[in-house]
Amino acid sequence: xxxxxxxxxxGLPRQVGNKTECGLLGFVLDLKQDYEPVRNLMPEEKLYKxxxxxxxxxxxxxxxxxxxxxxxxxxxxxxxIVLKKCSRILNAAGEPRIFRPRDRDExxxxxxxxxxxxxxxxxxxAFRDFNSSPEPDWDNENDILSDLTCICVVGxxxxxxxxVPEAIRKCQRAGITVRMVTGDNINTARAIAIKCGIIHPxxxxxxxxxxxxxxxxxxxxxxxxxxxxxxxxxxxxSSPTDKHTLVKGIIDSTQVEQRQVVAVTGDGTNDGPxxxxxxxxxxxxxxxxxxxxxxxxxxxxxxxxxxxxxxVMWGRNVYDSISKFLQxxxxxxxxxxxxxxxxACITQDSPLKAVQMLWVNxxxxxxxxxxxxxxxxxxxxxxxxxxxxxxPLISRTxxxxxxxxxxxxxxxxxxxxxxxxxxxxxxxxxNAPLHSPPSEHYTIIFNTFVMMxxxxxxNARKIHGExxxxxxxxxNPIFCTIVLGTFAIQIVIVQFGGKPFSCSxxxxxxxxxxxxxxLGELVWGQVIATIPTSRLxxxxxxxxxxxxxEVPEEELNEDVEEIDHAERELRRGQILWFRxxxxxxxxxxxxxxxxxxxxxxxxxxxxxxSIHNFMTHPEFRIEDSQPHIPLIDDTDLxxxxxxxxxxxxxxxxxKNNSAIDSGINLTTDTSKSATSSSPGSPIHSxxxxx
Length: 690
Known about the structure:
alpha/beta, Calcium-transporting ATPase, cytoplasmic domain N, Rossmann fold, 4 domains, 7-stranded mixed β-sheet, 3-stranded parallel β-sheet, elongated
């Protein structure tokens, strides 16, 4: 760690390395001292022993060898923890004096707590001298890190970024509860949380966690976690496992009806389990370790909390974009299928021709997905509560929109189909000869259908019952381009498509009627938005993720102990290992068949049913008095001696490759003598290659 000159004149020095150490070095410079001569006198390679910082001891120590052969250890760490290990303290003259427990309590009240209440992280700096003979046992940390002499207690402020309080307010407005997990003491953590806006004075919140979730035996109980986590906002003096315990406790909680979705940020190696367990893991791109990045789902390249708000906004926007496209596509599908099928059944001729349907599919799939999926995210996405894990892709409001617009379109299409020729005083086009020119009647139906889809595409921009469907439409140039481009291509198809598109050019008044009916989609959308969704009891949601069915406890085997996550991963690895051995056994059988063909007319070599016997050369065979060595645990065999005696290799491979049912055994055959193959024989080379 070091302080570099500022990039701009008059700016703050650039901090390189650990921020806490850089703060201490800056304090040294403010005292008009220089740390470089000390480093040159005692370079890093001359350090005798280093106790690195970890979250358990919450301190770090460095041992150096003095010129007279003695040793001196310098320590720094959490003030209240290091002070408990101090028996002396330097006075104003730099001389050590006795540091009694009541002196420590006084320092905590008068020095540490006021600093912590101001949001300062307090650090105690201490030292201890050791004799050269006998040399201390450096591995005995409890003895080494005791009887210290306190030098000073310093307060370091980790300033809150200006954008963080606003980002936290946005999260809270979006229904996201922000909880802070920190190693600072409770006063420092509370002060920082108030600055960030995580907690507010006068609120009913909790800042303690570890002691409240354990019973008299020190075991964690889910029931205790369920009582605490709804009010928990700050977790101070956290241990390495506290974050994982909190994440697991919230996910497994039955306190609320809906399962909570948990996102976690982390940068250290200790955060890996919590990042893996959480639904969404955020790792720091700058300060994060490789372990944290590997365990996370998203990496924040700028280490900024406001980027999490952007991730939430984009996540909701992607989900909404899928729902918008589904709402539009299902409306087009329902109408197109019913019109084509019903029209063909009633009039013996589909109103929508084959090439026209291709154009409709192009509008419905490619263009609509580009138009509706490119909506940029807005701050309005953060004004509603989270969906939760079980949010359907098609809500009841969307189902109302789909059915409502489908009814409008089908009504007008069938009206034009049966009375359109009378309205426009044109030929109906029904029962026309095979090579007759395209019908104006069917062209109007096709054009009206496309116009309704174009204007319904604007309606599909809103899926939560909003009335202003034009809100923010000009912020998405792709949407505007696709709608206007589709309209222009439709004009070309109708006016100049001719026989390939089964279209007849339309008059201006006919075009006006088609556009007018299409505009009716916007008006009809306002009518649909007026109808309360709660009144339509028959509407159902669709696209909801199904949860795994809970297995009743009485159906579970009482003798089977609960398997934790690590054991489950081990079992999964064993299954993969067994499956691999299954495949090798199959290959062995193929090789045995190949051998039998090679040795036809010669003395048949020994049959090797075991992978060990097959892969091991005869001169290196291991004689074993136990005829069968099972791969899987022998605990079951120990419980059943009869099974242990009668165990034998399987006669055939299991068809589904299940490791549990296959009963694979590795056996060593000592009943027969091996027939050695010469090093130059094809059998020897085949064994070597396998």
